[in-house]
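Ligand: adenosine-5'-diphosphate. Inputs:
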Amino acid sequence: MTLRNRVSIAAAVGVLVIIAVVSSVLYLFYAASLHSRVDAALVDAAQQASSIAQRIKQSGGGDSGPAPDINRPVTVGSVDVQLFPGPVSAGQPTPFGPLDGHDVAVSEQTQPSYFADGRKGDQQFRVYTTAWLGNPSGLVRASRAADADDGALRDAALLLAGLTVSAAGVTYGAARLTAGRILRPIAELTAAAEHVTRTRDLTARVGSAGTSDEVGRLGSSFDTMLAALHESVAAQRQLVADASHELRTPLTSLTTNLDLLEDGAGLADPQAPALVRAAREQAGELDQLITDLLDLARYHESASHRETVRLDLLTDEAVRRVQQRMPLPAIDTRLHPCLVHVDPSAVDHAVSNLVDNALKWTPPDAPVCVVVENGQVSVTDHGPGIADEDLPRIFERFYRAPAARGMPGAGLGLAIVGGVAHANNGTVAVQTGPHGSTFTLAFPPLPGAVEVSPGQQE
Ligand code: ADP
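Predicted complex:
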């Protein structure tokens, strides 16, 4: 069932229930008021007992005719009135059964007048019994058929039921029209989503349908999501293209060196050791590139594994490892104990990349300085600095400044640093000038005292 139909039916059912409840209350009120009007008419007719008796006597036809039957029921409006001159006695017959002791007590005014439901044949009556005030110990009984108002009640019920059903029907129609207009942007959004699913066309846009309500905002969010998805897919395609390109270069050199070995005198060739060394270096480059690509993918998302670690100790370890590989230039460290909550292996990798770059760009006789303080690692080198035109792009994947083209590397080191910072709630910043650069990797520091053994102090 469509949303439009569901909204319309819900509105119609809501109105139906409300009007049905109101109609039922109105009907009950109407029935109760009819009832009390009947009782009032019975009392009114009973009060006319003396004038009714007068009329019966006058209708007797004078002295010559038979004596008028005073017990004969007389119709006043819709009420039948029957008179029982006093004194009445229990057992005296009436159309509603013989009088009883209670009726005798009412006639003597020792009991109050009363209403009752009586039966004459198979018809129900409302009966009022009261003392005949103009006739000592006399009794008056006024009665009216109980179903006399059934027609009016039935008409009222039919009218209210008709009104209820019509109101529900009108509400359904109005709700369908309104819902159609309100839900049109949702229908357009649905069509656009289906179009994207069918065609995989991430350039399709829905727009906010000119409204700033929830539906408009949903449309804008959908467009933003599509744009982000489009950008992400494009970036992935670009990454695959760049990675393939970068992998091809060492692979081609490797193949060339192996071809040379095969075409010449093989391992007996005096060039063979150099060719094998070059091939091994190229295989190492390939290995490094693949590792970097995997790390880049791994560290880009939010870090799944985090633990509280000493940033100073972690940095110390990374510096030692890099320095073992590249003993010069020397690294001057100032490591202040501090705690951070990060993925340790990812941060180790990022710090190694920064130190690695600093050693690559600093002349062998100038020191590199690594400082850890308050959740931050700063790596300062004395290299040539970074050109203004390169600065905005150095954290991009595969970006290498023209000055770096002759050096080893594939342009993934800083992209990994940026990914690690992002995935661990951190930041990375660079300050650069003609006499060197400082890269600062910062994470939210954890409060709490860090116990430092004497050997760990600067
Ligand atoms: P790679 O070192 O493989 O070239 P990176 O992503 O580590 O790739 O660095 C990207 C670029 O940023 C480098 O090519 C270089 O131009 C510049 N760069 C990075 N670190 C430094 C540095 N310490 N001094 C000068 N330039 C740097």
